Amino acid sequence: MFEATTILGYKGEYNGKQYAIIGGDGQVTFGNCVLKGNATKIRTLYNDKILSGFAGSTADAFSLFDMFERILEGKKGELVRSVLEFSKQWRSDKYLRKLEAMMIVLNKDHIFILSGTGDVVEPEDGKIAAIGSGGNYALSAARALDRMAEIEPRVLVEESLKIAGELCIYTNTNIKILELA
């Protein structure tokens, strides 16, 4: 069984400017062994206007990325319409329903978690989402930092992922971050 990854997405305002940021660690684990410590699990989509990241099976995640990118192109980068169409296709396809991966997709206006069962979840606060083995650690840290400090969004994501990497054995602190500012 592969265990791996913490992905954290954040969107918000800082100093009057809108931000969308996604970060992820680089650990890929098989059983009790670390197979790789510097994997890249985040990327930009649709002419660098959408950020995305995955947790779960790498092969399954690449299938989801490809499908989602095709839908984004067809919907001209409209994230909400693309996410809804993606969910419809995911739930109606027997092959896709068996994929073991989750995704976070976001831009400056919206953030969504796409679950392994085809569900679309918009975070309750509308700005912070996390997935993967250390997702709950990163989410807790990000919520605390967001509520208690006036902190740059990139720093908030990086520090939250570091905390997750210190607590979750399937997450490391080899962090990569992408942002739309």
From TrEMBL:
The keyword Nucleotide-binding does not apply. Na(+) binds at residues 165, 168, 171. It is found in: Cytoplasm. It catalyses: ATP-dependent cleavage of peptide bonds with broad specificity. Keywords: Allosteric enzyme, Cytoplasm, Hydrolase, Metal-binding, Protease, Sodium, Threonine protease. It is an enzyme of class 3 (hydrolase). The keyword Hydrolase applies. One of its GO terms (molecular function) is metal ion binding. Its EC number is 3.4.25.2. One of its GO terms (biological process) is proteolysis involved in protein catabolic process. The active site is at residue 5. A double ring-shaped homohexamer of HslV is capped on each side by a ring-shaped HslU homohexamer. The assembly of the HslU/HslV complex is dependent on binding of ATP. This is ATP-dependent protease subunit HslV. It comes from Helicobacter equorum. The gene is hslV.
